[in-house]
Design brief:
CATH class: Alpha Beta
Number of helices: 4
CATH architecture: 3-Layer(aba) Sandwich
Shape: globular
Number of domains: 1
Radius of gyration: 15 Å
Structural class: alpha/beta
Strand content: 25-35%
Strand order of the largest sheet: 3-2-1-4-5-7-6
CATH superfamily: Vaccinia Virus protein VP39
């Protein structure tokens, strides 16, 4: 893995809008259990939550600086958890299988639907048959054109119809730190079972 990522700058100084210092409220009730992968974990709040609930949790992020901060949090909290610098478009190269995968705001940063489809395939490669994916991404109801892609419901249904059964797809919201035009972003929350 590269020693530097363009995302590193986001984790220098003031926390970025998405790093609210706690799990996203919409994801607090996710039933984390077994082996859990947090893809695009940032500074690790969801990975740490999964570990607190007894899961064998791995958080991966392309930003070495985010992973460094996540490891520091784990040490401060005495948490047994793993964090690795890793590209989410290469998840299969982890050579690990998970019961649950979580994506809190990664899917929508990929630049085009072909890349997002490749990422969905990588998730399917590492989640066991019958395992679950929980994914949150911006929806078109988020005002303005700042930040990441707005993802249409039709795209999620099309991309996740291969190798997944969508159990639910509902409106949700991301809480955000000050500094962006809104205090929250409208989102989709998808739950899907690997088949």
């Amino acid at each position: 893995m590269s020693a530097h990522s363009p995302w590193d700058e986001s984790y220098r100084g003031t926390p970025p809008p998405w790093d609210i210092g706690r799990p996203q409220p919409a994801l607090v009730d996710v039933p984390f259990s077994g082996r859990v992968l947090d893809a695009g974990c940032g500074t690790g709040e969801h990975t740490l939550l999964a570990a607190e609930r007894g899961a064998d949790a791995l958080g991966v992020d392309v930003s070495p600086r985010a992973i460094e901060q996540a490891r520091a949090k784990a040490q401060e909290r005495g948490a047994t958890v793993r964090f690795e610098v890793w590209d989410a478009l290469r998840l299969a190269k982890l050579r690990e299988t998970f019961d649950v995968a979580l994506d809190s705001g990664l899917y929508h940063v990929f630049p085009d639907v072909d890349t997002r489809r490749m990422y969905a395939a990588q998730l399917a490669d590492v989640v066991r048959d019958g395992g679950t994916l929980y994914l949150m991404c911006f929806s078109p109801l988020t005002a303005g054109d700042w930040g990441p892609q707005r993802i249409e419901e039709t795209e999620l249904r099309e991309v996740f119809r291969e190798r997944w059964t969508i159990d639910s797809l509902s409106a949700s919201r991301f809480e955000l730190n000050p500094g962006v035009p809104v205090d929250h972003a409208e989102a989709w929350l998808l739950s899907a079972t690997r088949r």
